Amino acid sequence: MTWLQTIVLSVVQGLTEFLPISSSGHLLIVSRLCWDADAGASFTAVSQLGTEAAVLVFFWRDIWRIVVAWFAGLRNPASRGADYRIGWAVIIATIPIGIIGYLGKDLIRENVRNNLYITATVLILFSGVFFLAERYSLQRRGLDEVTMRDAVIVGLAQCLALIPGVSRSGASASAGLFLGFDREAAFRLSFLLAIPAVVASGLFSLPDAFHPSGEGLSASGPQLLASVVIAFVVGYIAIKWLLRFVSHHSLNWFGVYRVALGLLLLVLLATGIVPAVAPAH
């Protein structure tokens, strides 16, 4: 991996991790279009440590309050309020993606990630979920009304993000909308529930990022560190912008963008401008 690739891919990661447009899909498209290569699932996972650090910094007050309330609730049942339930929701929502991500690691990396036709198709089809979520969501619930049932459903929806083109925030926030949460609460819940899974994935993938076992560019230690820092800065700005945007605008804007990108990608693939599968180097 060159330094130009490191910088560009890290900026793409920071910009797209929180927007419901699929960061993994965009990393695949950009790396394939610009360099006829794949950034690799491991590099992607490690760069996500930067964007998750942005979540930790941006929501540090909420996170601290939830952690304190969770431990207090374990000691004293009388103090079990909304933050205590959110703490359990984070734990419960992490279980499905932890199991599926671990067991399906090789299948995802070697098959699903390796074909841009899948990414293009998923970008288009999953946009329909956004349109339906906006159409049928009541948007009457706040984050303080989260239940364990919500955690299970959003946790299962989060598993869909293992497929490039879905979007972690898009899948979990859409589930939140279907459950009746307002848009900002749905995205806040999405960010909080993703923290353990993404951090664990990044740390687990750290050794592989230096020497990818499958398709993927090999990054050096300084490049991985730079990637985390760049993704952190850009990701922090993206979170701030997104929460303001979804307070006044629907997910349909992102749905339209995803359809347009998916159709453009299908044209590029059909004409051979972009290879569907990265060639072996």
Radius of gyration: 18 Å
The N- and C-terminal alpha carbons lie at a distance of: 12 Å
H and E order: HHHHHHHHHHHH
Total DSSP E strands: 0
Residue share in helices? over 70%
Mean pLDDT: 87
Largest sheet: none
Secondary-structure content class: mainly alpha
Q: Number of helical runs?
A: 12
Sequence stretches where pLDDT stays below 50 over 5 or more residues: none
Bulk shape: globular
Strand content: under 5%
Total domain count: 1
Give a short summary of the structure.
By secondary structure, this protein is an all-alpha fold. Helix content is 75%, strand content 0%.
Explain what you see:
This protein has 281 residues and is an all-alpha fold. The chain has one domain (3-270). The chain has helices spanning 3-16, 23-35, 41-58, 60-75, 82-103, 105-112, 116-136, 148-159, 168-178, 183-210, 221-248, 252-270. The mean pLDDT is 87.
Keywords, separated by commas or semicolons:
281 residues; mainly alpha; 12 helices
List the helices and strands and how they pair.
Blueprint lengths: L2 H14 L6 H13 L5 H18 L1 H16 L6 H22 L1 H8 L3 H21 L11 H12 L8 H11 L4 H28 L10 H28 L3 H19 L11
Helix pairs in contact: 1-2, 1-11, 3-10, 3-11, 4-5, 5-8, 5-10, 7-9, 7-12, 8-9, 9-10, 10-11
